[in-house]
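General statements about sequence and structure are easier to judge against a single worked case. No coordinates are needed to read the tokens, only the vocabulary itself. The sequence in question and its structure tokens are set out directly beneath this paragraph.
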Amino acid sequence: MVDVHCHILPGLDDGPENLEFSLEMAESAIAEGITHVVATPHSNDEYHFDFERVREMRQQLQEKIGNRLTLATGCDFHLNPENLDALREDAARFCINQHDYLLVEFNEFAIPPAMDQALHEIQLLGLRPVITHPERNAILRTQEERLAKWVRLGCYVQVTAGSLTGVFGPGAQKNAWKWIADGLVHIVASDAHNMRGRPLKLRAAFDVVRGQFGEEKARALFIENPMAAFEGQELPHAPELPDERDTPRRKRFFFF
């Protein structure tokens, strides 16, 4: 499996405090069957994104774990004016493995007023926005069509593995499953921060997705699409959504 959203590097944000904890997270990933991890520290009003420091810490961790796990860097990119200015100057440093997929984060209780315009500007830079954990946003949970509109305009959606297993509550769980059924989800990632409440684990979510939607869907969300993003390639599994005037087809699914 491939995890493109993970706070595994020490001392950069609200992830692990030191390299020892980062190593524990890396070992957990290896035990889960994860082969590639993208370290994506926050870039927001609280945490400054220092690309050279990020690369330095990635190299230190990679040297410790050897070739048992492939590490790359990216960013949990918060939409604010300062970040957008920095993106225009040098976008690659913020992107997954320095290609063209950008994790776009916003507050779980709000949506930036200029969200549509910001996403459009990101695309004009030649980047592919990936909306992170929308199922955890209280507003988007009641405005699915807004998320669907962004997908129709060329954005992608990443939900958190823990949402599928109920870690973030029944609301996030319900919407995560529904949006997979509706074809709105392209990638599942851990968004891991530590070994306690936010561990680097994907296996449980992979298994329940496989049980509900089959092997092909599970591989698409946990392996093939995230690997394509890791390599900067077109996502092989990106179902075309029906026109917003049409009634989307509903698949039956269960909550775990």
Observations:
- The chain has a mean pLDDT of 93.
- The domain at 2-231 is CATH 3.20.20.140 (TIM Barrel).
- DSSP finds nine helices and nine strands in the chain.
- The first strand starts at residue 2 and ends at 6.
